[in-house]
Amino acid sequence: MPDVQALVNDFVNKLKKRKIEGSQATARHTAELLRSVISQQRIPYTNQAGALVDAVKAVGEQLIAANSVELAVGNIVRRVLHIIREEDLSLTAAAIGDVNISPVSDDDEDEIGRDRPVLSAAAVAAASRSTLRPPSLQTLLEEVPNNAAVHHSSSSGGDSEGKSRSADKSSRSRKLKHDVIEAVNELIQDISTCHEQIAEQAVEHIHQNEVILTLGRSRTVMEFLCAAKEKKRSFRVFVAEGAPRYQGHVLAKELVARGLQTTVITDSAVFAMISRVNMVIVGAHAVMANGGLIAPVGLNMVALAAQRHAVPFVVVAGSHKLCPLYPHNPEVLLNELKSPSDLLDFGEFSDCLDFGSGNGEPLLHVVNPTFDYVPPKLVSLFITDTGGHNPSYMYRLIADYYSADDLVVQGKQAAQK
């Protein structure tokens, strides 16, 4: 069994050195690491869910600090925390509900119901919340057997009862860990198959003889377009090249290899060509709680062009890209500057140094941002692996995905101020 801390340190180094690219790969690796953390975490008899939450939080803080631009890391950490709380709530409800759940006939139900307490949803939730709190002194004392107060004649019965309680708690801790791991496995599966789930909706949005515009390279977009092609839809795709990395050239080759009619245009030609376009379909790096996008640089220009010509602007993104933070949150890094070598050769750059000033300061500066921010008012529709959603619905969708995370509430309160 590999050492968990060694796995964490290795993943942190990869994030710092940008060796893992793409939200999907980052999200999958994060979920797999947290699964290893949970599987090797020793759970105490008391506050079992709290122990798992603390372990995941400790690792999550290291991962988020390693690369704050990759918001998918924080998204998966919050999602796993939500899973732990939900599974603990489910086990607590099942344990409390055992009082009322039994195979009885309709004739005996009224008579038995008089002797058994009826538990409300509030009582179940309160019991679940108590399991997440640190153990109190009274709780700890209750776990210690008081041998002095027990007569010798009843010692065997007390030991038997204590062993039974210990076995029950051990069984519940194993059940909690097992259920959490199973839920994380489902999360990893959802991350791996999100492209296929989104692509299944393509035929509902792309129609015959339409012209689709996209920018850069997105695997989700490519699978979405190819799925419509496989459903016998005939359409043309305009691909903006996405300078300076020209990922659009790679996407165009992939689309042509799949049999789609493709036209490559320069980024500056978007406004000139948008009048011929029926729909813009793009991917995103992250979807914020207000419905705004952190997306490849140049996409805000495309969104403005689409709004000017009343062209639908559609965003396809997996659920792992839904972020419960707002763009004005201080912990959100909206951009990252890449190497100037993508725009200008170092040899040409050295020719622009001002050697006469004595300090060698360059007269030419190169700025190479990675992302754009697209406000929600420019987005027409979000298509995720759970279906199509209006931008105004994104907050509720994200709140359901991370319903136990306080950051959603804090972000909403900050937005209302």
Automatic annotation (TrEMBL):
One of its GO terms (cellular component) is eukaryotic translation initiation factor 2B complex. GO terms for molecular function: guanyl-nucleotide exchange factor activity; translation initiation factor activity. It is found in: Cytoplasm, Cytosol. Its main location: cytoplasm. Pfam families: IF-2B. Gene3D superfamilies: Translation initiation factor eif-2b, domain 2. Residues 148-176 are annotated as: Disordered. Transmembrane segments: none annotated. Keywords: Cytoplasm, Initiation factor, Protein biosynthesis. Residues 160-171 have a biased composition (Basic and acidic residues). Component of the translation initiation factor 2B (eIF2B) complex which is a heterodecamer of two sets of five different subunits: alpha, beta, gamma, delta and epsilon. Subunits alpha, beta and delta comprise a regulatory subcomplex and subunits epsilon and gamma comprise a catalytic subcomplex. Within the complex, the hexameric regulatory complex resides at the center, with the two heterodimeric catalytic subcomplexes bound on opposite sides. This is Translation initiation factor eIF2B subunit beta. It comes from Saponaria officinalis (Common soapwort).
